[in-house]
Amino acid sequence: MKAFVVDKYQKKGALRLGEMPEPELRDNDVLVEIHAAGVNLLDSKLRDGEFKPILPYRPPFILGHDVAGIVVRAGSKVRKFKPGDEVYARSRDGRIGTFAQSIAMDEADVALKPKNLSMEEAASIPLVGLTAWQVLVVTAGLKKGQKVFIQAGSGGVGTFAIQLAKHLGATVATTASAANADLVKGLGADIVIDYKKDDFEKILQGYDVVLNSQDAKTLEKSLHVLKPGGKLISISGPPDPEFAEKQKLNMVLKLVLRLLSRGIRSKARRAGVGYSFLFMWAQGDQLGKITSLIESGIIRPVIDQTFPFEETNEALAYVEAGRAKGKVVVKVR
């Protein structure tokens, strides 16, 4: 099968389009013919080698995390899916490879594709949808009447998280450029701060939850918008000791991550708020709940651009430029 391959870790290195073996099908796996793949910043960071200590893939490996396609074969122990089912998923860590013509995935990571979405629209959802769900529902326990600050509202995670937070009954503040203000307001943002002109730290106060996706400076400023007992949840780091435990990292890495996050954890404690790092995980049941929200019209995908499969490198470069509104997708078939 044709696939885009990382031959060696290299910053902004081009992926190689080449022939790779068909994936091995395990007893709990479904083999999916890929129709579309979402493109994420995680893909380029992985290619650059930023996650080598915690996700040690050995080149050559196929890149890509988001997928929508059709089940063509099912393992002997698969009960949820059958050949012909249209599905979507975020492939689990250690078994990625959606920039290809097919992939084998554990059925626990897969959900039926929303009936009202195209393959390209469905492929845009899993990673950002699960990230937003795991931050707002699982970790924050966001409730009706609470206030949440979602940074970078016009990005992939932001466009999904705003819609989910509004569905949960929260007041939503976000940052966006003036050009994207109407987009995020249309998704449900109550307060839109022009990050080029205004400082969110001086405008927002008394918030219950912050979803941080930006740099260390923004992370620290986010502490000051939370009320006592509030939760600062970061998807951009630094990883904390709880994450190291969950990943079963070795003692050296556990110590490194403890030191890396010590500053922000100490400042959070002094401010009387909680800090946690979230690295989203594949989860088919959660994705199934997201499917229900999409099919009922509560959440809609936001796609900036779709690239043909042959232009996967160009799609990655476009995502890295940081100007995409919503998601970027590669059409495989």
Automatic annotation (TrEMBL):
The keyword Oxidoreductase applies. Its EC number is 1.-.-.-. The lineage of its organism: Bacteria, Pseudomonadati, Pseudomonadota, Alphaproteobacteria, Hyphomicrobiales. Residues 13-330 form the Enoyl reductase (ER) domain. The keyword Transit peptide does not apply. This is NADP-dependent oxidoreductase. It comes from Mesorhizobium huakuii. SUPFAM superfamilies: GroES-like (SSF50129), NAD(P)-binding Rossmann-fold domains (SSF51735). Keywords: Oxidoreductase. GO terms for molecular function: oxidoreductase activity. Coiled coil: none annotated. It comes from the Bacteria. It is an enzyme of class 1 (oxidoreductase).
